[in-house]
Design a protein that fits this description.
The chain contains eight helices and nine strands. Helix 2 (33-42) runs parallel beside helix 3 (59-68) and helix 6 (154-165) crosses helix 8 (191-206). By secondary structure, the protein is α/β, with parallel strands linked by helices. Strand 6 and strand 7 form a beta hairpin. Strands 2-1-3-4-5 form a five-stranded parallel sheet, with helices on both faces.
């Protein structure tokens, strides 16, 4: 899953990014409100961690513009603005959660996990399509017919997760690259086919009949 951090304190943004990457999330960082809003509107994210007091465009304005575009990405406000009226304002204008600074990194990660778990279509933290069950916590891919399983990590995991969540939908290559490799990626044009080949090989290993191809 892909997360955007909009935070002007670079060291803090990098610390959050480092921790979330350890949790197997793909993370992008924007250090001002203008870039953050542009990235939020032009790229596909599962969750945005949003500061309020940002240069160029403040976080509340970013929140409003995202929701005005009917973008339903999960948004967690992370800010030093701790007044009750600020919290109410953020939540009433479309934030899914509101965390005040200073904060504990473990709590932020837990709240990120909770928000992203809401979209998982299973009681066991799994995405299920056809005879496949992908556990988003362990990165374990199970074929429900053969009961064989295999670990899927890194870009393979991100690509498979995205394809399973968009099963039976036509997803443009550019959108896949933005989602899996990030908006500043330098991925070569054959990377997608290479990773799809890796995934198909793993599907054959566990005996799945599901097939994935690029469009």
């Amino acid at each position: 899953m892909r997360i955007l951090i909009i935070e002007d304190e670079l060291k803090l943004a990098e610390a959050i990014s480092f921790r979330l990457k350890k949790e197997k999330y793909s993370v992008d960082i924007s250090n001002n409100g203008e870039d953050g809003l542009d990235n939020a509107l032009t790229n596909t994210y599962d969750l945005i961690i949003l500061d309020v007091m940002l240069p160029k465009i403040n976080g509340f304005e970013i929140l409003k513009q995202i929701r005005q575009k009917s973008i339903d990405t999960k948004i967690i406000i992370l800010t030093a603005k701790s007044m009750l009226e600020d919290k109410i304002y953020g939540l009433e204008n479309g934030a899914n959660d509101y965390i005040t600074k200073p904060f504990h990194m473990d709590e932020l990660v837990a709240r990120v996990n909770v928000q992203l778990r809401i979209d998982i279509k299973s009681k066991n933290n799994c995405i299920e399509v056809g005879d496949l069950s992908l556990n988003v916590g362990t990165c374990n891919l199970l074929c429900t017919k053969t009961e064989e399983s295999i670990e899927v990590i890194g870009k393979e995991y991100l690509l498979l997760e995205y394809l399973m969540k968009n099963y039976n939908r036509i997803v443009p290559r550019e959108q896949i690259y933005n989602k899996v490799w990030g908006f500043d990626n330098e991925a070569e044009s054959n990377n997608l086919e290479a990773y799809l080949s890796f995934i198909r090989k793993k599907l054959r290993i566990i005996g799945s009949r599901n097939k994935y191809k690029s469009s």
